[in-house]
Amino acid sequence: MPGAPLSRVRFAAAGCQHYEYGYYTAWRAIANEPIDFVFHYGDYIYEGADSGDHLRDIDGRKAHVLRRHVGPECYSLDEYRRRYAQYKLDPDLQAAHAATSWIVSFDDHEIDNNWAGDTDQDGTPPEIFRLRRTVGLQAYYENMPLRATSIPDGSHMQLYRSFTFGDLMNMFVLDTRQYRSDQAYGDTNAAQGKDVWSPERTMMGAEQEQWLFDGLGRSDAKWNLLAHQVMVMDLAHRKSAHSELTYSMDQWSGYLYSRKRLLDFIDTHCPGNVVNVTGDAHRHFAGDLLIEPGRGKPVSVEFLATSISSGADGLGDDDHFSRIARSENPHLKATTDKRGYVLCDVGPEVWHADLKTIDRVMVPGGRLSTYASFAVERGNPGLQKA
Fewer CB atoms inside 10 A, N or C side of the chain? Predict the structure, then answer.
């Protein structure tokens, strides 16, 4: 049955809210937006210990963190619960929760940095790490607006799920942490060797992938939103002008077999109406998704929302990373190292997105502006400046 007619959906995508590195000014701005829901892509908390009162390198200068975590790194249920309680004391975050509905996913810091399946970054035995994952997921469920079907079962939580917005949009929330293979090459930025193409390595797992493909294949909505955690764009980077091209092994660029399967399916079964909204990278990115970068036409687009506070004020769009990223990736249409969120306005024929930024988060009252605006026409995948 097709959904009821619907002419418009508006939502904000945001996440990565490290308490120590900035005020939640962006959450106050989101609370004031006339939107239908928030998609929180993950990193609602950060699990690390109190940073202490020593100077740290922040935006290229020595400074103290803005506000400090209470307690050690989170391992127990009490410690995770206390961390959520501390974050939720923030009045701007409270305002955003009170203003609208939230659709949430976790990423890594709700448990531990860059965890993958049963593996953490420290080489902890899987049976021990699963104990930590059990309590982390329990605290996450207790603090997030989730269905009863997501009640944790030991160290597993059913997070991937779908939402229907009339005949306008179907939303598929993915889980790219619980079922993925361990990152290749020690989870460093590396050249794309044969391991990233291995069919034995997966980002979503076979069951979730089939669920997604079945859902996309049946979808008769005008738009399909894939809401997930990490970048889909195959983004190349160089440390210097003459160094080799490297890619993130934590993003889909480290799982090219899974990435190609996803984009091939979109191209064959639902061309022109799939938009990806992601996060985790602490920068805004907007770009076209090609099955092979530099070859062929886009099959989808991606809006990656920058962080709420992680990364502190940021350096803008003329830093070394931004310059190299733009020069090496023609499919990348915009990037900036500032805090903020992505605001999406979805209509029957055009998907409009604004990359919103806050000029400073290390002081209160930062100024909100629109860094860039893009439009996507249904049936014609590819970003256009708006």
Answer: N
| Between 53 and 143, residue with greater pLDDT | 143
Name the residue with tokens 């790490």. 129
- Mean pLDDT, the chain, rounded, equals 96
Q: How far apart are the first and last CA of the chain?
A: 34
pTM of the predicted structure, to 2 decimals: 0.97
Statement: residue 2 has pLDDT above 70: no
Q: For the chain, state the CA radius of gyration.
A: 20
Report DSSP state, residue 177: S
Of 304, 296, 251, 236, nearest in space to 275 by CA: 304
Q: Is 324 left (phi over 0), alpha (psi -120 to 50) or beta?
A: alpha
pLDDT digits over 286-314, tens only?
Answer: 999 999 877 889 999 999 999 999 999 99
Give the whole-angstrom CA distance, residue 86 versus residue 64.
19
**pLDDT value of residue 1:** 55
Pairing of strands 314-316, 56-58: unpaired
Cα separation, 158 vs 37, in Å, equals: 21
Cα gap 39→275, rounded to integer Å: 14
Report how far Cα 91 is from the mean position of its chain's Cα atoms.
23
- Per-residue burial over 239-255, b = 16 or more CB atoms within 10 Å of its CB, e = otherwise: eeeeeeebbbbbbbbbb
Task: Give the contacts of 210 (CB within 8 A, at least 6 positions apart).
Answer: none
Phi, psi of 136 (to 5 degrees): -65, -45
Task: Check residue 262 and report its DSSP letter.
Answer: H
Cα three-residue angle 277-282-286, rounded to 5 degrees? 40
Give the count of alpha carbons within 13 A of 83, CB side only: 30
- Cβ atoms < 10 Å from Cβ of 97: 14
**Amino acid at residue number 192:** Q
Angle at alpha carbon of residue 380, lines to 379 and 382, rounded to 5°: 140
Asked if 297 and 338 count as a contact pair (C-beta separation under 8 A), the reply is no
Could you tell me which of 312, 342, 176, 198 has the C-alpha nearest to residue 250? 176
Question: Phi, psi (5° rounding) for residue 217?
Answer: -65, -30
